[in-house]
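INFO batch 0412 | record 1 of 1 | parsing
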Amino acid sequence: MKKTLVIYKSKTGFTERYARWIAEDVEADVKPVTELDLAGLADYDIVVFGGPLFASRILDLGKVQSWMEKMPKKTWVVFATGATPSDADFVKSIEKINFPPEMPQPARFYYFLGGMDFEKMGWFNRLLIRLFGRLSQRKGKSEEAKKATPPSRFHSFDLSDRSYIERLVKYVRIKQ
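INFO prediction complete | emitting tokens
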């Protein structure tokens, strides 16, 4: 069996939860990306990286892509977590933004619903979300557009579900 490592960047805990579920299901080691360097990856054949989406970008992906470039023989799997319900077009757009053709590509990419934990967010991120909510509710917008954007008052919510990882786990088990 090939040795597997799950690494993650998590700001409010949703990505870490998914990383730990994946590691448990595929019997892998799990570590925050901040605790690793290139040498720490040497003993692993399969690396799964997860990070939260922030403005359509996967946090800390640049660091992981530099490792992907230096260790292309490893099987790299990437997942992102976010609070936006998705469809195939949304996932493709996130993939296109984060993995342009000139950058190293993972073997597979997955998106999992997470949530928002305003108590764990930094003040700046809370402020940005509130401003976006207020702007989106301004006069002149259609009722349909207002419904599609968040309100200016927010509450924490959790949409994570262990069943979302099933396809990723199945893929990693095949590769192991």
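INFO post-check: Confidence is low (pLDDT under 50) at residues 145-152.
INFO record closed
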